Amino acid sequence: MRLKSIGSFPAQPDRVWCAVPHPHLPLVATASTDRVVRIYSLRDFSLVSTIEGGHKRSIRSLAWKPNAKGESVLATASFDSTTGIWHRAEHAHDPYPIIGGDEENEPPHSDEREEEEEWRFAVVLDGHDSEVKSVAWSPGGSFLATCSRDKSVWIWEEMEGDNYETVAVLQEHSQDVKMVVWHPEEELLASASYDDTIRLYKEDVDDWVCCAVLTGHTSTVWAISFENAGSQSRLASASDDQTVRIWHRQPKAQSASPAQQPSIIKQTDDGSQDWQEQSCLPKAHSRTIYSIDWSKSTGLIATAGGDGRIVVYKEENVAGDESTQGDSDGSRKEWRVVAQIPSAHGVYEINSISWCPRWDKHGKKMGEEILLSTGDDGIVNAFELKL
Amino acid sequence: MSDIINANPTILNASDLPTRHSHARKKQSSSAYIADSISRLPTSRSLLYDPFSSLPTGEDSAYASGASDKDEDEDETAAEDIDEQEIYDLISTISDPEHPLSLGELAVINLPHIHISHGTPTPENPTPMSHVLVEITPTINHCSLATVIGLGVRVRLEQALPPRFRIDVKIREGTHQSTDQVSKQLNDKERVAAACENETLMGVLSNMLATCK
User: Fold this and answer.
1) Buried/exposed code over A158-194 (b: 16+ C-beta within 10 A; e: otherwise)
2) Domain boundaries in chain B?
3) Exposure string over B137-161, b if 16+ CB within 10 A, otherwise e
4) Signal peptide position in this chain (chain B) (predicted)?
5) Closest listed residue to residue A61, CA positions, set A47, A75, A73
């Protein structure tokens, strides 16, 4: 496989920290040092709308709310220590179905864009003492998590009428918290930190509690990404120590018969979960790895970082006869680098990498994924994976 | 910062500081390039208020054109144009935040503690990175200003060097009681970016950098 550039989005004047695809529309939003959120079309890579004036300092990350009905909801995390929530109606004549927008059923698009209706500022979430670094919605959209240099992770719950209530302030980390990510199906939150650890949290009766600490990285953990759940739960992490590690949740030994064990592990008394390091991916980066994304549809992992390199990894079956440490069926799985591209942003560092669906010019999903990378050069690049 | 942390630092005589004597002429073109780049730096005022967002627009274009000119003119040697002495010249003139002296005079910055490596262009990767590592020697081992000094060095280099340079600023092993913590902070991109949006801190830094030629 190889990565091939399929174009770039219009250049921005400053560092782009991240690009996040919309949950069901052919849109991607970017967060930038120039305090502007730009929303681009994934059909033709054009600029669709911007959000300006909401933050006093860099916008570090953003998140689209899943399952938002009839409107798009975006959360923005800023170095000004606040998180903003923004709404925009999905246009009445929007060519895209809002729920369950299956590519087959989509009507042919018109050239209309959602330009008429502006973004509406809904609420600012105050509370962190210093820069907010990351923001994430829970899979059902009911909880919002934020994290900050103030070492804390906050969980907010949306109430009626643009009100958000703080339901938890988790101060488990001893240093900056770099990123928060929710499990794709469970209300299980993970945070990555400058203190070299990853922590997991879940609601236990009334309180959110830390249920696992993942140690092993020898420097800042910059980014984490869950595997699309299925039968097992795994988490991938990328670090300043230039390694990528896979963590695996161990089934509870004392739980009921495995046949009846659902994918969501039954809680035991102390509520803790046993996560173990499963593997370390082949070394491919020579500088800090800033971003990782585990594709929810292909299972491929992509990483990018300060060395300007994008790397794609695939888990492959290997013949088990040479190793006794195989699974029960005798085969063994191993991660391999299947594609990479050096200097994907020229001489500049890459801040984020993300998989997103590929859309054609008519607004139809093409059934494959592309990679979006953002760099210190103010560019968002798109790549396809060619066999 | 009203209390002087180190009241009696050791001071080097200016004539003892390392300079480029015999090579001065030979390196003129690249020095001129740097001087040209520096002349395009934002004024201290814009640095103070908005260091990073004001930089890439004007400055990147300056570098982009500068770099491409170079590639045409001296393709073979393009990757070797900046050496340790030039890095030294860029950062040794930074003022100490509490003494009216330069980091070179205080031996905080020392030529032997600057390390540069240049990548080799390959067909796969025609634009390899260059790497500079600067090890700082704080005047005393509990100097609480080590972070500010390190940040000043990093900001100076980020502004003055072409973007292909990856910059590591570290506290020299054994010269500070919290070497690892300070070094880790100085090399955390996000912390540095956030620090550069802190007006008070940038005010201190712009004073330190005001003495750079």
Assistant:
1) beeeeebeeebebebbebbbbbbbbbbebbbbbbbbb
2) 26-209
3) bbbbeebebbbbbbbbbbbbbbbbb
4) none
5) A75
- Tokens encoding B154: 């990093």
- Domains of chain A, with CATH numbers? 23-254+264-336 (2.130.10.10)
Q: Are A105 and A32 in contact (CB under 8 A)?
A: no
Q: Which helix (H) or strand (E) holds A356?
A: strand A350-359
Nearest to A14 among B53, B189, B194 (CB): B53
Residues 6+ apart with CB under 8 A from A261: A251, A255
**What are residue A2's DSSP bridge partners?**
A386
Nearest neighbour of A14 by CB, restricted to B56, B128, B166: B56
Interface of A with B in 42-61 (CB under 8 A): 57-58, 60
pTM for this predicted structure: 0.83
Q: Which CATH class is domain B26-209?
A: alpha beta
Alpha-carbon Rg for chain B in angstroms: 17
Tell how strand A2-8 and strand A380-386 pair up. Answer: antiparallel
> Cα–chain-centroid distance for residue A256?
33
Q: How many CB atoms lie within 10 A of CB B7?
A: 9
Length of chain B: 213
Task: Give which of A33, A34, A59, A81 to mutate to test B binding, by max B Cβ within 10 Å.
Answer: A33
Pairing type for strands B130-136 and B165-171 reads parallel
Question: What SS3 class is residue A135?
Answer: strand
User: Does the model's ipTM exceed the 0.90 cut?
Assistant: no
Question: What are the tokens at B173?
Answer: 């092993």
**A87: which residues sit within 8 A by CB, 6+ positions away?**
A71, A72, A73, A119, A120, A122
What pLDDT digit, counting tens, does each position of A96-143 carry?
444 444 444 444 444 444 444 689 999 999 999 999 999 999 999 999
**Tokens 């009334």 belong to which residue?**
A206
